[in-house]
């Protein structure tokens, strides 16, 4: 092996009170590793200088190893130094390798010496060795492997659509007996006849091909390189036989020359291939071939597929309460709400819209990809419309559309049990088109008649996790403004979508006004369903699905929202919010009133638990979390050692210091340190996965990949955390700068501001202001979501004293402290009022966005 090192950066040893460190570039056969060693003296101020150097340098490396004595005990209490050190490595997407105590004295055993790596899967083994004759510290080591895993062969089936003569396809399509579909009496036979005809058409023009795929031949390997490989192999055999130093030198020269030729050829091939003008779909296909954006479905599954399928289907839930509740409701007459909604006939325009919105190429059990439909739309559109109308009018959902192929997606890198997999269902394409049309009719009726709770934010237009969290965090900030704490409880339902009790759902549909025909159609849609697990060329046995709403369906989430909606009617004392099956309740209270607050919330928790039992849903006591939120001085007034605890099904809930709420990590002080670490971790992980392909990527492709895969991590709920500290904001900004430097392969010392201008990209503070204004514009325009829109009032609506200008000026809510001053409501009002009149009065969302972008750009200049 060839190994060389060079020093990239080292600390100035003449300065006192600073950490000592060195950064090396280690070259192993052309693979570069960033290796750093650091020493932080005891009681030394912490290592921001080292952190900045690490972030700047690691942007150009796929492999990073940091080792050193940081004089911070990772086995000890959570001191500021310990939190800073662990946060540093986590935010850089580096893993600290576990060790025992590495420093030994007569009175203490401490873990001071640390080894951290960018990819722990590359660590073959690591550990520590005592060195009693040298130091009180153990020697720490790790063995780092660089060999890529071997590609496993697999069986694939495909149709080569590129070879289709579309003129001949359409001409043949017109000659087929499509009229036979109309002659069928039942929708089931209509679908079978339609499938038979269209499959026959494509079997002739693009037959299904089965192929065993191993490692693809490298297209960049030329005849000249193959000849060079032969010479290298021949020289290796000769050197091994003669054991002559000169022959070994000849072999090494040919080996290095061959590796360099292959590397250069590969770079040229992909660079030219990706730089060409092409569709986004073609570009992503080439990127996946390179290894970017690959899914985890190729991970070997060491468990019997039938076992996995049984785990997905057989959910242990007690349905006694749900059955009793159904019997109870059947004996209570409806109050005049029946038959207010019936299906309206489907038009060809409806069907065309649903088909064109289908983007997935996944093929269901009927083996009819959406490509078949889109390529024959002039002929098949009226036939599909007739099938859909027949289904709705006869209240029958075709049997073949009720079978799902399930792909087990690993949740972790090395899955060992069925619970380590997540089911991803693949349904027939046409069934999802019909579901989309039904969803449109259902949701229009429910929204128009306000039949879904205002505080349900899941799967609704103009609602999102961001709007839900803005409502909750603004309520918490308002409580702080009033010197109140907030008791927050987040419930966890176990596999709620899979536990819907069908008879109870049907009763609920009747009670919100669905006609008998609509309810019968939903019955047909949900009953007699089945699924099998498929991976590669292997299938499990089919299993009946007797409960729940279909995974991966369009209609399922809406039906579940209806099913869970009336849980809000049993909550008497607490504020509440729903996002699909994520339910949370909260109460605001003065510290002296915590006992009364806990008592009233226990009453609501008991009511929710009873509701869940009567609906066949299981609350997971161990995953349900509770937290008291408030500023530091407020929480010190509460003695949590003696404070009463909440209970769920006789299980005591411990008060948490932080919770994960709809993907956002909230702390008891409403701080965002942990969320910032999570965001930085994801950003560095994303860049790390791209770095090994950097040489192959033209600038425009790099920009596209970073904007598509990396920068959205900064955007998630960014306006919720708008009140983060300057320190956290700077840390996020450094992570964004890291992304920009990766795009341009910039040096550590290069300024990033010109690069932002070149990309027409906003920095994070500007981006948060932009997102705040765009959301507020939507809230004002659509008066939705209602729980946010009611907080914004124009000055002209409050007092007649204000002129026409006041018609577009928002009233800033009264507040006493900086806590609510940093809320979304106040921040959004200030930003809105600071806009020029001509931008505030732009009605169209696209024009408003363009106006705000232009304003921010002008201010930057």
UniProtKB/TrEMBL annotation:
Coiled-coil boundaries: none
One of the protein's GO biological processes: DNA biosynthetic process
GO MF terms held by the record: catalytic activity
Record-linked Pfam families: RVT_1
UniProt domain Reverse transcriptase: residue ranges: 390-666
Name the record gives this protein: Reverse transcriptase domain-containing protein
Species annotation: Graphocephala atropunctata
